[in-house]
Amino acid sequence: MIKIKKGKPLIDQHDKNGFWGGKFGGNFIPETLKKPIEDLTILFEKLRRDKNFIKERDYYFKNWVGAPTPFIKLENLTKHLGGAQIWAKVVSEANGGAHKIYNATVHCLITKRAGKKYIVGDTGAGYAGKMLSMAAKKFGLKCKIFMGVKDIKRQKPNCDAMRKNGAEIVPVYSGSQTLVDAVSECMRYWVSNCDTTAMCVGSTVGPNIFVKICGWSTAQISRELKNQIKFVFKTIPKKIKLINCVGGGSSAYGFWSEFIDYSPDRISLIGVEAGGPSKSKLHAAPLSRGAKLGILHGAASYVCQNNEGQINETESISAGLDYPGVSPMHCFLKDTKRAKYTFATDEEALSAYKLVTKFENLNPSLEPCHAFAEAIKIAPRLSKDTIIIVNSCGDAQKDRDILKQRLGR
Amino acid sequence: MIMSPISLAFKNCKKEKRPALLTYTVAGDHTKKKSLEILNSISSHVDICEIGFPHNTPIADGGQIQTSSYRAIKNGIKMKDVFQIVKKFKKNINAKPVILMGYYNMIYQYGENKFLKKCKQTGVNGLIVVDLPWPDNKIFAKKCKNNLVSFIQLLSPTTSQARMEKIIKDSHEMIYLISMLSTTGGKLKVSPKTILKNYNKVKKINKSKNLVIGFGITSKNISSFKTADGCVVGSEICKKISQSIEKRQNPVTNVSNMVKNLKKKIS
Questions:
Q1: B131 and A34: CB-CB below 8 Å?
Q2: Chain A residues with beta carbon closer than 8 angstroms to that of B186
Q3: Residues of A with CB below 8 A from B110's CB?
Q4: Does A325 share its domain with A243?
Q5: Quick one: A185 and A239 in the same domain?
Q6: Average pLDDT, stretch A105-132?
Q7: What is the pLDDT of residue A409?
Q8: Given an 8 Å threshold on Cβ–Cβ distance, is A31 in contact with B133?
């Protein structure tokens, strides 16, 4: 039976081979990447203990990213649903409009310390790419973003932003032409250029060190939230539900990391994956729809795949969740039963968008709309002293074409 | 002790004072039948056949091999077909040692033990697993050896001297040296001289290991590597298959001619 240790960040609860719970994560990488990954690991472990580096990170989080992001009660939605209180951590207020800014900023700061001038990254919804291009510009690095052709078409506003920031978008034509192929292509590029170039993996996936750096960066969200909860309620309330969408799982980990040590009865963690169109067999929900353990992009996790081990195509209205694998840390949280995972369909996410925007002055992107869908589903059955907090981790501006097409606005 | 077929292949080449020629083709590219025909037709010119079992999320393959892999998967190739192809190929009187090459998830889903049993049954002699580096591969490599399958360790220009020494110590009769920082089939961006310098560094640690050079080797540059124990050509062959399909020519004859020419260049 695998167990979570208390008093130790989840990002550090892996064994010496990089596995959480003995089987999730690891480093399934080509020999060529062993050295650059080892170098990055040593540098990161040094920097996270370096007071000046922490000071620098906090400075940019506060003055450039804009910390803390707001924590607000959704009064009208709460009244409408008539059950639990619904609150939102509006992470989309961060510079750039989503949580991806934390990981991008940290990777660029590390890259500067490593003395490298180039950084490459993958993107699905385009947020990871947009933020990396922003941070690269801010810190004077040259930037290339790998993006599936299908995503380039459906997330145009973010592509425009990347180009405006001076980044080169490398279109990826292979496979399903979405995030999974973008990550593969980005890794292949890094294999060929790892002597001069740093790689930023856009979520808590990939070889062990990338899971850690990303989780360490997004943990800012729950550090802020913990303070905000204490400030608003004067204490940590008895019944909290933290609901977050899960694609790779970077925002969910960041939203939960400070609360993992609490008992599940007091603070329950609910991850919502992309169920895809209700009429389609395809989805991007490896945790909640029983995918088998497999290896994808350098790590072992639950992966949507066929019996042979070929990675399945996924389908979701939300490009940011449209990924067949998931963070090894979420697999660990699932198997230890610390977090629960479910999914919302495309249609449920769209209805959630309609309802939230009808009642509140909030414009969550299709990714967090999956989380709102779950909140809307469970809130009416819960008592008024239950506090539901949804991480509204992205802004819907990037989804305007899809929303117009699907909802006529 | 009986010499393994892989060691024997290298020994024969050394007698002829030339490097071993290793080819890489993807099982099932572009059909199961054609890929077997290609193997049969090149067998008398090559010394060892590397056969890829395709995966749809390859993180270390360049465009040519990706194209071949996707084509094979699209044509419905399964692991059982890969083994079937090996088994049939091995019945050829001219058959050469076979090394299967691919990504770990395919082996993991098949089951390590079942996979190795099948290797033994069908006559697979060696295995290259691109994304299972040392030391994570230690247990699996031992399992391979117990099943008379040679596990081939990879070395790269980024591998440090200390790490190289440890990997070589745990290696079996053959080691694969990646020529440069690249995916498969990249343009040779360093000089053969630099590559051979790295090659000699490895040989100096243990000269009894058969060391082959791969990544970026083509008919244009293969003659620069005559001093190596072996050279692997993959992407150029996959490209030839793609071109043949495009031009509606027979890939079997085209690949066969190409391999004949490669052999001539190192003889």
A1: no
A2: 192
A3: 308-309
A4: yes
A5: no
A6: 96
A7: 67
A8: yes
- pLDDT surpassing 70 at residue A116: yes
> DSSP H helical segments within chain B, as ranges?
5-15, 32-42, 63-74, 79-90, 104-110, 112-122, 138-146, 161-169, 192-205, 235-246, 251-266
Tell me how far apart the alpha carbons of residues A107 and A100 are, in angstroms, rounded to a whole number. 11
Judged by CB atoms closer than 8 Å, whether chains meet at A17 and B132 is answered as: no
Residues of B in Cβ contact (< 8 Å) with A305: 105, 109
CA-to-CA separations, A197 to A118, A187, A206, B216, in angstroms, rounded = 5, 11, 17, 21
Nearest to A229 by CA among A210, A251, A255: A255
- What CATH number is attached to the domain comprising A183? 3.40.50.1100
pLDDT mean across residues, chain A: 96
CA-CA distance, A313 to A162, in Å (whole number)?
Answer: 26
Question: Within this chain, do residues A209 and A222 fall inside the same structural domain, yes or no?
Answer: no
Give pLDDT tens digits for A6-40. Answer: 999 999 999 999 999 999 999 999 999 999 999 99
Element (H, E) at A357: helix A346-359
Structural domain including B55 reads: 5-266
Percentage, residues of chain B above pLDDT 90: 97
Domain ranges, residue A167: 18-61+100-215
User: Are B141 and B151 spatial neighbours (Cβ–Cβ below 8 Å)?
Assistant: yes
Inter-chain contacts counted by CB atoms under 8 A, chains A and B: 109
Supply the CATH number for residue B163's domain.
3.20.20.70
Nearest CB to B159; choose among A31, A193, A303:
A31
Residues of B involved in catalysis: 50, 61
Partner-chain residue, chosen from A17, A174, A191, that has the shortest CB–CB distance to B182: A191
Collapsing DSSP to helix, strand or coil, A128 comes out as: helix
> Domains in chain A: how many in total?
2
Interface test with A, best of B105, B156, B170 (most A CBs within 10 A): B105
How many degrees, rounded to 5, is the angle at CA A354 between CA A304 and CA A123?
A: 40
Q: Of A146, A188, A199, A297, which to mutate for an interface test with B (greatest number of B Cβ within 10 Å)?
A: A188
List chain B residues with CB under 8 Å of A192: 181-183, 186
Q: Report how far residue A311's alpha carbon sits from residue A324's, in angstroms, rounded to the nearest whole number.
A: 7
**B57/A180 touch (CB, cutoff 8 Å), yes or no:** yes
List, as one string, the DSSP characters of A132-178: HHHHHHHTT-EEEEEEEHHHHHHTHHHHHHHHHTTPEEEEE-STTSS
CA distance A206 to A210: 6
> Hey, what amino acid is at A93?
E
How far apart (Å, rounded) are the C-alpha atoms in residues A134 and A401? Answer: 23
CA distance B178 to chain A (A): 8
Q: Do A35 and B159 touch (CB under 8 A)?
A: yes
Q: Taking CB atoms and an 8 Å limit, are A292 and B157 in contact across chains?
A: no
Give percent above pLDDT 70 in chain B: 100
